[in-house]
Amino acid sequence: MQLLLKKYLAFIGLLFFALFVNAQDDEVTFEMSVSKNKVGLNEKLRVDFSMNRDGDNFNPPNFNGFDVVFGPGQSIKNTFMNGVRSFSKVYSYVLEPTAKGKFTIGQATIVIDGKTYKSLTKEIEVTGVVENPNAPPSAESIADENLHLVAEVSNSNPYLNEAISVVYKLYVSDINVTNFRPIDNPTYNNFWSQDMPVKQYTVEEGTYDGKPYRFVVLKRVVLYPQKTGKLDIEPLALNVSLEVPSGRRDFFGRPIYTATSKTVSAGSRTITVKELPIEGKPENFSGAVGDFNFSVTTSKTALNASESLQAIVEVNGSGNLKLFQLPELNLPSSLEVYEPEFEEKINTSISGMDGSVKNNYTVIPSFKGKYPIPSISFSFFNPKTEQYRTINSQEILINVLQGPVNGNSSTASNASVVNNRQTVEATGDQFQFIKLKTTLQPASVSYFFGSKAYFLWLLLPLLLIPIAILFGRKREAILSDVAGNKIKKANRLARKYLSAAKKTLGNKDAFYVALEKALHNYLKAKLKIETSEFSKDKIAQLLSEKKVDNTTSEGFIALLKNCEMARYSPFSNVQMQEDYNKASEVISAMDKQL
């Protein structure tokens, strides 16, 4: 029994020792905190320097701009709960400002386990004299100190067409957020932008300005700069409903909160976009920026004449996949080539676009022979290595096994080349005898006057009179329908300008002017609104009332935004083709729903 007791006591001792060592191995923290970041000239400021391990040789900062009213006060808290030891030690000061302005409280130092630790600095704003310096802080001042909206930019100095991300975070401390709504959403002029929707708001722990906060990611967007130089990102502004502690407690000792609201802004951010290097820039460079692979492949290399094969020009990797043109195939004239079908499989994440784009050519040979598909090259700029790279495709030989021989082909026989003659083969029906006997018959003669046709033509004007009366009434009804005529005219104009937009693909200005006119007239036809009433909010409202689904409505609004951005932003042919296809899809979808 005694032996068992000794073993039990030894186990308990080892357990306490392990817990003590674990507590001692915690990461050392040494931080400075202030009672408020903004203080009146006749108010007092409390400054605390806290640590989780005991130390020596504490050296406070020089409190420039303040007089020390009290301090240093020292408090130690050493607890042991649930087998875990916690220790905290705090040096406290009470300061009184001596002048208005912004002052920085410098770093304090302390030696813990032979190492010197420094606290972060704090900036304090001293305002004029307040009426009641001993009054508790107002709800607005508490909100100012504990609520911050921040726009975090992944790279403020990217290359042209290099992906950057902007993440908007709402930092909160010691207050509760009950609701928020956007007041002003940023516009990304001179950027190709892609929103990354936040499906669910998740509260996370973090730090802001050296102080622990809770934060929520509100908005994420991926940007590709389309111009060089300094580009501004407009701020995101929110109206936030809050509950802030009032400093009072109810009958049960629970804190009482005061409801208030505050407008916060992420502030404008400036991005400095670098020009792509001139040195080493390939002649065939078409604007691709990223890290890519390039290939040219065919579905088959041996076939008969009049059969078809697929030649695929493909680029895959990560970068601005939607913002450059693929190189074109250079095929022999003896091969019939159709316009390529463009296909893209692109996934856009917070780090940018990745996936593949390709052109699929349908090729049909007409003659027997061997036809090479020459090597073509694709060049891109890699912002990570800051160098250009060119990839050349492999030459492909197409072998047409059976079919007619092209007299001009290099694969024709030597006899055909030398004699330049074609062999004539008899088919058996090339020569026919002229017939000597005929079978002629006398033609029958009929007179028009007094015939059935004569009387029908005579009565025809009488039959047309009621038809003309009905047609006239119908025409008057159509002309009197002013609203209906406007709708029909707008429909015709929408089709006309959409057709004009297709014809001007490649000409950015003409394309987007025609596309915008087509969208305008389509709306006038379907929603019965005039151009003077034309606004995105009204369009969204009317489409919602007409029960158009959100995907179609957002697609239509996005097209209108692209038409506006095209006036001052560069757009590639790929982007124009994509916008045209999207316009056709959206108009077709809206037709079905309306």
From TrEMBL:
The chain crosses the membrane at residues 454-472. It holds the Pfam family BatD. Residues 1-23 form the signal peptide. Keywords: Membrane, Signal, Transmembrane, Transmembrane helix. PANTHER family: BATD, PROTEIN BATD-RELATED. This is Oxygen tolerance. It comes from Cellulophaga tyrosinoxydans.
